[in-house]
């Protein structure tokens, strides 16, 4: 069997995947946070399948992901080939392939596979991914991702136009932080969010070209350098920019302030990208200013800060970016997030529970109907999950007295359906036990609860469901 040693939650994830197949799924999707060790999990599954004589194909879309998968398989003693430019073909049962290369070679013939593993499966919705999947209609699929939805919020399930037919939930970020497998995050954001009033939405997110101009004002550039100097001077940090030009400008600003900073992007030479990423681990680089480069696949535990200068409406992109710094390292007590983009206030802290679905996100309610996913301290500007006091400086938020409007009215019979079902004369514990998530708003209305009560109840239910899954 495989030489890979699994952590308890990884072993549990493997068993849940097996249960999904036994229940009749052909293409389950494993969801686990960045840093949970998804590569280790699917390498273990691939090694087990190969030991039974099955042919396994591991698909990835970037060189870093291909290298990671190959390294984990090698460490486990699993012989494998690599289908990518510069590699000599091998006839091993396990193959790690660049989806771009494999899609081009399919026309010259298809070697059958029994299991296809799709790394970063939120990309597997169109183009070359569809070409490869269609070439192997009889193979089982296994997708792995930290963010199981597309940029526009659409799901990855069959009904949403994707290819996955079951969702397997791995551990939560909060569970991994509690177990010491990820580091906690401390978040700081300026008092004023960037002005994005003139930035239009394109393809489900802010238009990159307009966003670059909006995020390059002298004040924003200066604030980014000053906050780094104040909170994490000299520590290895990744800065996320909306454009290559913006990344280069930020690197110049940090160098001018005396820090070792470089800019790198998806269009940089491979040698330059590798040197920049490696420099974060050796100390040669203190601030890596990136654009479309390392939202996925980067494994540099030494990174102790992320600097957000790319506002995004994509929960997936935000989670991937912050996740780059959550891996633990010797001497590292926490990740510092310097959020100049307003993303943490928009999407919530990284440890906040997420409700994922193969069908994707439902249409958002009006802002007035939602409780913000995060709160910002007016004293030290830390950002955190809503609570009465700031966890960083201890500032206690004043409790706003509830204003009651007095109006004239007539007495009437108490026949309101909401009062009959959810009124205060009924024990709340029994009401909640019998009520669905959809009933929570009605309960709050019938009992006169504040708007935030519904959000907190839904959060509590989600945590209870996650705990039950992991029990």
List keywords for this structure.
17 strands; Rossmann fold; eight-stranded mixed β-sheet; alpha/beta; seven-stranded parallel β-sheet; 471 residues; single chain; Helicase_ATP-bd; hydrolase activity; 3 domains; helicase; 16 helices; ATP-binding
Describe what you observe in this structure.
The chain is an alpha/beta fold. The chain has three domains: 8-171, P-loop containing nucleotide triphosphate hydrolases (Rossmann fold), CATH 3.40.50; 177-384, Rossmann fold (3-Layer(aba) Sandwich), CATH 3.40.50; 417-470, no CATH class. Helix content is 35%, strand content 14%. It has helices at residues 8-22, 38-51, 63-75, 99-105, 128-135, 173-178, 208-214, 218-231, 244-256, 270-282, 315-323, 343-347, 417-422, 428-434, 440-447, 452-470, and strands at residues 28-31, 56-60, 80-83, 94-98, 115-118, 140-145, 166-169, 185-188, 201-202, 205-206, 237-240, 261-265, 287-291, 305-308, 335-339, 375-376, 382-384. The strands form three sheets. An eight-stranded mixed beta sheet has the order 12-13-11-14-15-8-17-16, sandwiched between helices. Strands 3-4-2-5-6-1-7 form a seven-stranded parallel beta sheet. A two-stranded antiparallel sheet has the order 9-10. Strand 9 and strand 10 (205-206) form a beta hairpin. Helix 2 (38-51) packs across helix 3. The longest helix has 19 residues, at 452-470. The protein is globular and about 65 Å long. The protein starts with 7 loop residues before the first helix and ends with a helix. The relative contact order is 0.11.
């Amino acid at each position: 069997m495989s030489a890979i040693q699994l952590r308890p939650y990884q072993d549990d994830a493997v068993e849940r995947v097996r249960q999904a197949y036994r229940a009749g799924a052909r293409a389950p999707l494993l969801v686990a946070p960045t840093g949970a060790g998804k590569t280790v999990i699917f390498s273990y599954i691939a090694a087990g399948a190969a030991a039974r004589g099955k042919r396994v194909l591991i698909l990835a879309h970037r060189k870093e992901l291909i290298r990671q998968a190959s390294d984990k398989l090698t460490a486990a003693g699993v012989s494998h080939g690599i289908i990518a430019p510069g590699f000599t073909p091998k006839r091993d049962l396990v193959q790690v392939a660049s989806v771009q290369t494999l899609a081009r070679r399919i026309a010259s013939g298809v070697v059958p596979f029994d299991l296809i593993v799709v790394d970063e499966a939120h990309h597997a919705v169109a183009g070359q991914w569809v070409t490869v999947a269609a070439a192997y209609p009889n193979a089982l699929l296994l997708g792995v991702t930290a963010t199981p939805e597309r940029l526009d919020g659409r799901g990855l399930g069959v009904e949403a136009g994707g290819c996955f037919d079951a969702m397997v939930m791995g551990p939560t970020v909060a569970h991994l932080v509690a177990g010491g497998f990820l580091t906690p995050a401390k978040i700081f954001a300026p008092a004023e969010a960037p002005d994005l009033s003139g930035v239009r939405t394109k393809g489900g997110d802010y238009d990159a070209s307009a966003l670059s101009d909006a995020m390059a004002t002298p004040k924003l550039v200066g604030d980014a350098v000053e906050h780094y100097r104040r909170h994490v001077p000299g520590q290895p940090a990744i800065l996320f920019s909306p454009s290559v030009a913006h990344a280069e400008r930020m690197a110049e600003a940090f160098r001018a302030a005396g820090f070792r900073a470089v800019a790198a992007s998806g269009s940089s030479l491979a040698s330059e990208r590798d040197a920049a990423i490696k420099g974060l681990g050796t100390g040669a680089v203190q601030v890596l200013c990136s654009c479309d480069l390392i939202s996925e696949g980067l494994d540099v535990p030494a990174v102790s800060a992320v600097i957000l200068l790319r506002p995004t409406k994509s929960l997936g992109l935000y989670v991937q970016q912050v996740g780059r710094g959550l891996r633990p390292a010797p001497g590292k007590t926490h990740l510092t997030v310097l959020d100049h983009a307003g993303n943490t206030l928009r999407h919530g802290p990284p440890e906040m529970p997420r409700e994922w679905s193969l069908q994707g996100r439902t249409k958002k309610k009006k802002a007035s109907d939602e409780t913000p996913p995060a709160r910002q301290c007016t004293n030290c500007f830390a950002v955190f999950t809503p609570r009465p006091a700031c966890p960083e400086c201890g500032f206690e938020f004043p409790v706003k007295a509830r204003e009651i409007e007095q109006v004239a009215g007539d007495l009437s019979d108490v026949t309101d359906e909401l009062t009959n079902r959810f009124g205060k004369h009924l024990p709340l514990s029994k009401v909640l036990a019998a009520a669905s998530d959809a009933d929570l708003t009605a309960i709050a209305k019938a009992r006169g609860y504040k708007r935030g009560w519904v959000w907190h109840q839904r959060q509590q239910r989600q945590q209870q469901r996650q705990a039950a899954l992991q029990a």
